[in-house]
Amino acid sequence: MTKRTGHLRLGAFLYPAGHHIAAWRHPEAQADAGVNFRHYVRLAQAAEAAKFDLLFLADGAGTRGDNVDFLSRTAHSYVAQFEPITLLSALAAVTDHVGLVATASTSFNEPYHIARKFASLDHISGGRAGWNLVTSSNEHEAKNFNRDSHFDHAERYERAIEFAEVVGGLWDSWEDDAFLRDKAQGRFFDPARRHVLNHKGRFFQVRGPLNVARAPQGHPVVVQAGSSEAGKELATRTAEVIFTAQQTLDDAVAFYADVKGRLARYGRHPDDLKIMPGVFPIVGRSESEAKEKFEQLQALVDPKVGLALVSGLTGGFDLSGYPLDGPIPELPETNASKSRQVLTLELARRENLTIRQLYLRVAGARGHWQLVGTPAQIVDELEAWFVNGGADGFNVMPPLLPAGLDDFIELVIPELRRRGLFRSEYEGRTLRENLGLKRPANRHAAHGAAAHAVA
Amino acid sequence: MTKRTGHLRLGAFLYPAGHHIAAWRHPEAQADAGVNFRHYVRLAQAAEAAKFDLLFLADGAGTRGDNVDFLSRTAHSYVAQFEPITLLSALAAVTDHVGLVATASTSFNEPYHIARKFASLDHISGGRAGWNLVTSSNEHEAKNFNRDSHFDHAERYERAIEFAEVVGGLWDSWEDDAFLRDKAQGRFFDPARRHVLNHKGRFFQVRGPLNVARAPQGHPVVVQAGSSEAGKELATRTAEVIFTAQQTLDDAVAFYADVKGRLARYGRHPDDLKIMPGVFPIVGRSESEAKEKFEQLQALVDPKVGLALVSGLTGGFDLSGYPLDGPIPELPETNASKSRQVLTLELARRENLTIRQLYLRVAGARGHWQLVGTPAQIVDELEAWFVNGGADGFNVMPPLLPAGLDDFIELVIPELRRRGLFRSEYEGRTLRENLGLKRPANRHAAHGAAAHAVA
Fold first, then answer.
1. Inter-CA distances, B36 with A125, A126, A170, A322, B41, Å
2. Which of A208, B89, B263, B285 is most buried, judging by how many CB atoms fall within 10 Å of its CB?
3. Domain B9-283+368-435, classified CATH 3.20.20.30, yes or no
4. Which superkingdom, per the lineage (chains A, B) (predicted)?
């Protein structure tokens, strides 16, 4: 494989006090981060000053899990924090360049609302909106939406495919030049450039048109995070960015080749989909400083929290009856997120970890790639993944916020720039331009390419 | 009745280019207002500098009506504009005091999403969010949400009552002091101060808890706009502000007394609900200047638009077969918004209007109270309604934006202040404080009053 040159892409994955499970207990932590708007303004403006491509917000429309003792000991699990679309809309008003990617589930939303809110955010932000399409792995969300249990794994992906089709169709309700705003003739729009969707499918019946003008980006950027077989297939059809959890270069390269190789089937080019694995970096000016920072966070993990966290990542199986310093037992397959479960168990078996060692391993990055070291050590790894076909960029998951983001900006980004791996100025005006993604033509437009990302 | 003293409340009801149906055609109009974020920032900051209580945004999750020729000649009817919750979230970041009231329908939303988004906006804005609860009178919204037709009038109000109960319950998921954020003990929240809703009703099954901390205002302010019998009953149970269309002082006084008189039945005090009729003011330095401004807008109304508008306000009946300069024919009762239909027909019969005269009368305020005159003339009317028990304040609907809002601020507000009718500084930090509404106690709190606005 030819070694790649050029710039990699960076996302700043913001999670209230930081991604480490015990981050909120850290002396420097903003413990009220989940409802502290000033905290997010500071993070967003710092990421933008450093030229990050995008801010990324995860989501759950319901607390993850039902173990109240566990929940009460964490600030994770979507216990109580801002809703992402309202938060990113507010951050749009205090930033000018950085992309704004919010997660929203296809299982517990209506496509008209999702198409509309993201198109509106794209207008508000001048072309910086992105939708991270998830199907939700959290059983408890269903109970907030008139259901006793979640859709099964296959059904929720079928629903997601149709949901994305409807959203893409609604985003093309209006051609780019539909709005004449001709005051003299009294014609606000050209009826010939307005398109009624009239979708009738298995899950949705949506007439349209969307009542928002076509987005500055054509379509907001569609991000996808599933890494299961169904998730990869959905991403290949609908996504323009994949956020994925990969632990090793070999796995990352295999995943990258697999997904990029599927694109031709849908008439898409490998450049039409950017792959950005998550990375959880703990950076120090020396290796020992980095390790100390990490140990300081690890020491704050309550064993009750660690145990419950591993249960959650392995499909809800209760491990509290097993010895903490013994091996992970064989577990039955569940309806929870398959890829997350497989990754967690593979990690434990590959490294022969005890339950305690495993919970300390996943406490931080929760299954994502963890790097602890100096700027040079961290950039060596990022560069290796980038140049060897494992990643187009990375979604950075700071252990502690704002300190972990500040460290990355102060120490890692200059090293990336020194090696010619990261921009010093934004290339474009929109998220799509900065990511190097084409603006999709409207499917109804008389002239222009038929290609569009959301079929 | 004792004449009232004190301050009245003012809302700035923002509609893209202005409330007059032909506003977008005016030479000064911002014709792209529906997708121009800078336009809204300017309006919001002007309203805040003038000490308005709140910004108010209407909504429809779908274009209103299906007459494409009509639609293409207007910028009204929710053809293509920002979605209100995203827009107000963005405006929250560039304002500090003004309230932010967005409309959202109980017919085509899920209560968990609505509770969450408004609670999130309340945190982002530091206690300035309000929810205008509507049941939707627009048949076309249904078709964007898996239905062939709307719920019937009675069913949508039954649904709205249950929806508001669920939202109120979710807003009390967490007691105000539930979040300990005790780093040393590792307790993020107190499990005893977290409350699972477990709602199972006719329309909704929602477990909870909400995954947003209790809002700074306790509950975001609940606004309601229905004026039918079912609408008044819903408002009496659930609302803290009523936005209503009244045409005469007598009608306004009767409506005010009727609604305030119903509150005791739900253990509520008359001050717990503020009544703010809509007013469409065209203000000039002289009476003739005001009339000229109005005529300039009226001259821009295309007869095709006027005719279709009257059809829409009278329940969708097609009037195009009747002579423009003849009387309004007898119309059958429909499933559309009853109060709007009754008001429109009463206006036509009271003043013996032709179809053309009627469309010119409703083209501006679309059934709301229209005042054309000098600042003194306009304030005479507002004062009469306020001191005689017809209104606690007004929702101002500028004919043209930004010019009509600027006129109101420059000419009318100083006259209101001269008469001691309007504030010069905000009294409180939250919308609720500025409106003079109590902060609701959490229904689960061990100490504190049991009173809360959303039962």
1. 10, 9, 20, 59, 9
2. B89
3. yes
4. Bacteria
